[in-house]
Amino acid sequence: MLLLLEAILKHMRVAEAALERKDIATARPSIERANDIIYMLQCTLKPDVAPELCASLKDIYTFVHLRLIKAMATRDPHWIREATRVFAPIEQGFQQAVKLVQQNGQ
User: Fold this and answer.
1) How far apart are CA 45 and CA 68, in angstroms?
2) pLDDT of residue 11
3) Regarding the domain with residue range 2-105, which homologous superfamily does it belong to in the CATH classification?
4) Helix runs in 23-77, H state only
């Protein structure tokens, strides 16, 4: 899970840098990859197990997805920065959770 979240951020950062350079040929596949992973994660949510968490994650995934689409449509890296600002804490939270699990497992 953590690797997927890291991959989303990596693809968003590549796309942002590409849009800043006006390099659409590099930005487009990075945005598409980030959106593909987001869609896959959204499909794995199990609201019957954790309804509030799933609702929050679904909202965040939708927000990020829409910002990435706006970035591609307008070719404006601002929208990717906004998506990254909202998404980065999710990845950081999972990093902390993995560390806690590893510490408690030892």
Assistant:
1) 21
2) 98
3) Flagellar protein FliS (1.20.120.340)
4) 24-43, 51-74
| Domain ranges for the chain | 2-105
Residues 49, 76: Cα–Cα separation, whole Å: 38
Q: Does residue 22 sit in helix, strand or coil? A: coil
The arithmetic mean of pLDDT across residues 58-87, rounded, is 97
pLDDT digits (tens, 9 = 90+) for 12-46: 999 999 999 999 999 999 999 999 999 999 999 99
d(CA 25, CA 1): 28
- pTM for the full model? 0.89
CA distance 23 to 85: 22
What is the C-alpha separation between 65 and 92, in angstroms, rounded?
19
Q: Is 57 exposed, middle or buried (0-12, 13-18, 19+ CB in 10 A)?
A: middle
Q: Evaluate whether 57 touches 38 at the Cβ level (below 8 Å).
A: no
